Amino acid sequence: MSLEVEKEKKNDNILVSTLSMMRQAIDFANLSPDVYEHLKTPMRFVEVGIPVEMEDGSTKVFTGYRCQHNNVFGPYKGGLRYHPDVTSDSIKALSMWMTLKCSLVGVPFGGGKGAIVCDSQRLTLKERERMTRSYVRSLGSILGPEIDIPAPDIFTDAQVMAWIADEYSNNMREPSFGVVTGKPLAVGGCVGRNEATGRGCFFVAREAAQAYKIPFENSRIAIQGFGNVGSNAAKLFAAEGCPVIAVSDISGGVYKEEGLDIDKLIRHVNETGFVKGFSGGEAISNENLLSVNCDILLPAALENQITGSNAHDIKAKIVVEAANGPTTPEADQILKENNILVVPDILANSGGVTVSYFEWVQNNYGFSWDLSTVNKHLQDKMVEAFRNVYGYYCENCIGSDMRTGAYMYSIMRLAEAMHYRGWLRNGIYA
Ligand code: NAD
Prior knowledge:
430 residues, alpha/beta, Rossmann fold, five-stranded mixed β-sheet, 15 helices, 46% helix, globular, binds nicotinamide-adenine-dinucleotide
């Protein structure tokens, strides 16, 4: 089995399930087959070799991808991921989710995603910098503030974005920091961007609890993944009086019935790099985290974590998909049968791209907002998006699930824009 095929298997090919979900939503909404025709294939997909001079003087050529799925609403937008398990198909699926996410939350961007296949934690800082700059040079003119705007994702951060902004600006011979979002404040970043995805998850979790008629205050939270999204969401839940009873990362997890001390846990992770070894709770496995007795579960790590083999064990009443694609289609079916509300990724984690949009707007007109303005606009956007999607789902998709509702709602908006741009010669509907 080739490495790519092996990885696809591990990834439970999320491209196949995304395409099937899009097709189903288009059929349910009675949209023209031409809508699927436009959405099934990215407008551009590039694979590049990225030569990097390593610390020992050798040269290593990494594989990089950039997928530009659809730009009917505006420039392509989406994260850049550094991970050894990335495949071309997973990047295509992730870019499609970005298209759906931007449409759903109403920001004028299209969908994009990029990656470098690498074990970035094994690279030195210098190697990471050289690799990032080499990636920008390899992509050349297909990036740009009005063309395609990357942002942080797994194992990339504000520093990586700053290198991209610098390399791009050098190539353009002018400062052009709007080419990326999620930058440090010193080079045109936006206050609150770092926490935005976790904060957005918190807002939709609160809305979901209200819609599903479970008391939000004191609800018990479990979070898989304690990186940017998971740890920021944990802080907000804890601050609002919702005990975070279990947390895990790649190293394992911790559990405490009365709620973990999140500030202490964050200090521990900053010092040791991992959740494992935290003395303020008992150790649990990653698998056990998913099945703890909680009210709201946030998968905030990777794709395909809730599967046909563990979905039956989930006791949460609501699953808020902080990560992209954490639930397989088989698991979706089981959760639906067990009456568990799944707030789909394209809604739940859209806080990141929403504040990225705020950052891009501020870069464009050269003025910075304060934190309360950013958070207020974020809250308004997330609450509005949740209510729109949940309302649409309740009206049109009873018997189905909220993911189908979210896909239908989002694709309807895309279809309308395609229609006005003249991409659907036979009309919007079948
Ligand atoms: P991150 O790299 O900061 O954190 C990832 C976390 O997941 C780490 O704690 C890591 O240890 C953990 N993890 C990795 N493999 C795991 C495993 N097998 N089991 C349990 N934990 C594991 O990444 P992030 O930015 O927090 O992103 C997390 C998810 O959220 C991803 O799916 C990403 O695509 C999605 N997302 C992120 C943003 C953003 O703004 N950062 C926006 C939208 C969606």
